[in-house]
Write a structure and sequence with these properties.
The complex is a heterodimer of chains A (287) and B (231). Chain A is of the alpha/beta class. Chain A has helices spanning 41-49, 94-101, 105-114, 130-142, 160-177, 188-194, 212-216, 258-263; strands at 2-11, 16-25, 30-34, 55-60, 63-66, 79-82, 148-152, 180-184, 197-202, 205-210, 225-237, 240-247, 250-256, 269-274, 279-283. Chain A has eight helices and 15 strands. By secondary structure, chain B is mainly alpha-helical. Chain B has twelve helices and no strands. In chain B, helix 11 packs antiparallel against helix 12. Classes of the chains: A alpha/beta (287), B mainly alpha (231).
Chain lengths: 287, 231
Amino acid sequence: MINININKKLHGVEEDMQLDVILEIEKGDFVALSGKSGSGKTTLLRILAGLETTNGIIHVDNEIWLDTHKCKSIQKREIGFVFQDYALFENMSVLENLLYVKKELKLADHLLEVTELGEFRNRAVTTLSGGQKQRVALCRAMMKRPKILLLDEPLSALDPSMRLKLQNEILALHKEFGTTTIMVSHDPSEIYRLASRVIVLENGKIINDGKPKEVLLRTQGSQKFSFEGELLEIKKVDIIYIAIVAIGQQLVEIVISGDEAKDLKIGDLVNVSTKAFNGNLKKNQTT
Amino acid sequence: MIEILQNLNFTPFLLSFKLAGLTTLILFVLCLPLAWYLSQTHSKAKPFLEAITALPIVLPPSVLGFYILYALSYNSPIGAFFKESFGVDLVFNFTGLVIASCFYSLPFMVQPLQSGFESLNKNMLEASYVSGKGKLTTIMKVALPNIKPALITAIIVTFAHTVGEFGVVLMVGGSIPGETKVASVAIYEMVEIMDYSSAHIYSAIMIIMSFLVLLGVYTFNHKQKFSGFIK
């Protein structure tokens, strides 16, 4: 069980804000941290790891990691941390990166086996691809047999097929080692696949906390599906209007009425949904 | 030509190299923690420390030499303390030269190391801390091996710069053969007594050696930059 009650003043890109988080995380949980960039997700991870100072308390399994009198050093916290940019030790080979943490060859070999890196064990890490580097980083983090595994957008720089592969490996290691895992992610499919709980941060506060299905599914009432997208263009065709909307990597056309077209302008964030037969397009109220 | 070379007194060169070697060694040990501190700190004292370490670059060697001479002589508390406590003279001998060279060449060791440390990916150092390693292990096993070009530059340039120093050495050490008469001082004296052929040979040797050293540094750094397999 992890108990967190912290507050810290952050200097944001646009304005200063207060990171204010009260959180309880069950042992063995897989938690996804989501939210816009600059909302304090990475800072929260770094505070847990001890890489940043703050006021407040952190208790892990009834052990004090942080309170007003004590701050457990980074080195002594049972944490594995996977950085977004891998942060491998570039002067070492794959195997040396792992053994640097702990001289336990058997564990290192096992981890390299699980992540299919066995044949690369003596390669210089500078010669690896992005996906391979991130797997080395994951193995390195597991070498400590950490109680808590912290992942800071570990897969954001990888292509979709590599992501899927690594997601499975992360999940396998999470289960095998029984770690409590906290992962920063923006990718809903990734969160849905991996996490048992998702916490959404905004401006340093928790604004949503629940099961991925409850938090991520955006449909309301009798909507059958619902997507958020950006309005790119409105074309007039005879008496109707056609809106072109970018949803993720995909462009779609939606028929809208003249009244609806009046309220919309190019660049609006919109919600595309369907109920029975026709598609609906509604301006997103949150923006 | 060969006869001239055979009759040449190499003692000033040997002295120069001994001085440069010792200075480089001492500065490396002293500057490593200083450069690390400067690269990691956000303290308000940082600009002051940086300015002080850079002073020897801009000061005329005579100014530096004058103050070092004064500080190490019996007239100052430092010089008097060493004389009374250890019976050691610090001026007009080799020990004094080493101390003076350490001040003179300080920035050439600190600055490359500092910028090397600053260029390191901060996450790499943090990954080492998270791996359970302290600062010393992180510096020795992760930071230093990853700034090899800066490290080589710092060591070689400090060495070469100490070999090339003249003003400070002359002021603090004078020109005692076998003790403080280094190559640069020897050349100055040869010119003064109009022994131009010896001055030519000494100077040519200095130019060739300096060029070879610098060529070596740049070749190494070039290779490091373009090789994927650093190991």
